[in-house]
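Why this split exists: single-chain examples teach little about how molecules sit against one another. For that reason, every record in the complexes split bundles all components of an assembly together and asks for one structure covering all of them. Below is a record exactly as it appears in the raw files.
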Amino acid sequence: MTDGSKGPNADNGAGEDFAERLDALKRDQASRLGGGKAGNAAPEAPESSAQGIGYALRMGTEMVASLLVGLAIGYGLDQWLGTKPWLMILFLFFGMAAGVSNVYRLANGMDMGVGWRRPDKQDE
Amino acid sequence: MAGPLEQFVIKPVGGGEMSSVAFTNSSMWMVLTIIAVTAFMVGGMRKRALVPGPWQSMAEATYEFIGSMIRDNVGDEGRKFFPFVFTLFMFILFGNLLGLIPYSFTFTSHIIVTMAMALFVFVLVTLVGLFKHGLHFFSFFVPSGAPVLMYPLMIPIEIISYLSRPVSLSVRLFANMMAGHTMMKVFAGFVFGLGAATFGLGGIAPIVMNVLLTGFEILVAFLQAYVFCVLTCLYLNDSLHLH
């Protein structure tokens, strides 16, 4: 492709081919990144610290949000059906269970959806 | 001295009576955000250089960032949702960042704003699932592999965990922005309180803390916009590909 004869490679010593040097650089970079983007083999490990913080921030809110939704559904059903405290208590526990299962799924299969998807391949 | 929560007060621009149709500081900063995003993208791509300059690289980098996010999390079918996710990301990101300018207003620190966006995502994702899969979409709520006896227990849990998505999506963004901005104001208040008691020396520590907090807030601004969009992508992926 390019001749590279007039490139300022005086300080590089031996004048290697440009493509060769590019390949070496790419290999070097890939080994330094540790298969972050290229490999994509390990979805379990967060790719960077920023993503790790992102996951950490998600954990807490997932639990609280499910709890609140369970509570709200129970309260609404109670208002509707006139069974004052019971459905709220029942759905509070459902909410807790949903929150725990959300966090479990989030922690187990990092790239999986938070909702109903379970980390496949490991269990069955 | 203003209290730490006074920065979140919504008031009409230029004084006057508060009404349901008033043009508030919140609306004004949303408009400014849209103008800033438009200026950023249009101004960056104006030259269309083959070798991009710094500004054009930034515009291209955001495009590539969202593009690869969708490619990784949704796949090829997610391509037609690119404009939606990109708009969402830029709106939240610029809203968060513009909110860090002194005397500005952070509209993402109000749960009504984040809840509106989260509910939009939620409704869109549900409709996409319904249109793509019809009533088969509801098979989502039935856990596969569980014994039938457990269904009365599992199905409400699955439904609750599905309904908790917009709540967690909106609460996360709103709580992070509000907590960060309140904390900055509280530390700024310490500057006066400690400084007045110790001839100004005590004010140094809170100022240092506030500088660090500002950096942290910039990180949070990016992170929350990123998390919001990644979750949108994951939800889209779930709706497009039933498991």
